[in-house]
Amino acid sequence: MPSDFTEGKFRPVIGDGSVEDLGAVDTLLLCSGRITWDLMVERTKRKDASRFAIARVERLYPRPMEELEAEIARYPNLEHIRWIQDEPQNMGPWPHYALNVWPALGQRVEGVTRQASSSPSVGTIKRHTEEQKDLLARAFAPLPDRLRRDDY
């Protein structure tokens, strides 16, 4: 609709408007870009979908600190936060956010990324598909006891 482009304003962080019970969310998945849509599709396939909220970081820099704090604060029973990205661990937003954003917010955030690599692409569709499947499985993995927020 034209109004989608002519009304409203830019939002640095877009929260999950589909969550009906904020108290049921124990894991917040943060991401940026195309991976958002893969996460949303994968969540619809899950029986435990209500445990997960997906928020998009639309402006990586300047860092949207206040908006991230507000999004995290929406979930009263949040136990874990994960950053999901398509890029390898040593590329994309993860290295910058791991060094600058999460410590400044006082948050422990698990990076769910592809293995570090000298190339942003694996070069074959078969391997890419396998890695993508693994990435989504790790994004929605149950909370390991060692990573529960009570431990830190």
Overview in brief:
By secondary structure, this protein is an alpha/beta fold. The protein is built from five helices and five strands, in the order αββαβαβαβα. It has a single domain (11-140), classed as Multifunctional 2-oxoglutarate metabolism enzyme, C-terminal domain (Rossmann fold), CATH 3.40.50.
Structural features, described:
There is one protein chain. By secondary structure, this protein is of the alpha/beta class. 33% of the residues lie in helices and 18% in strands. The protein is built from five helices and five strands, in the order H-E-E-H-E-H-E-H-E-H.
Quickly list its features.
disordered C terminus, globular, alpha/beta, 5 helices, single chain, 152 residues, Rossmann fold
Q: Output the helix-strand order.
A: HEEHEHEHEH
Cα-to-Cα separation, first versus last residue = 46 Å
In the CATH scheme, the class would be Alpha Beta
What Rg do the Cα atoms give?
16 Å
Tally of separate domains:
1
Q: Average the pLDDT over all residues and give the rounded result.
A: 91
What ranges have pLDDT less than 50 throughout 5 or more consecutive residues? 146-152
Q: Give me the count of strands.
A: 5
Q: Find the CATH topology.
A: Rossmann fold
Portion of residues in helices? Answer: 25-40%
CATH superfamily: Multifunctional 2-oxoglutarate metabolism enzyme, C-terminal domain
Outline the biggest β-sheet. 5 strands, mixed
Strand content: 15-25%
Class by SSE composition: alpha/beta
Shape descriptor: globular
Order of adjacent strands in the largest pleated sheet? 1-3-2-4-5
Q: Please count the helical segments.
A: 5
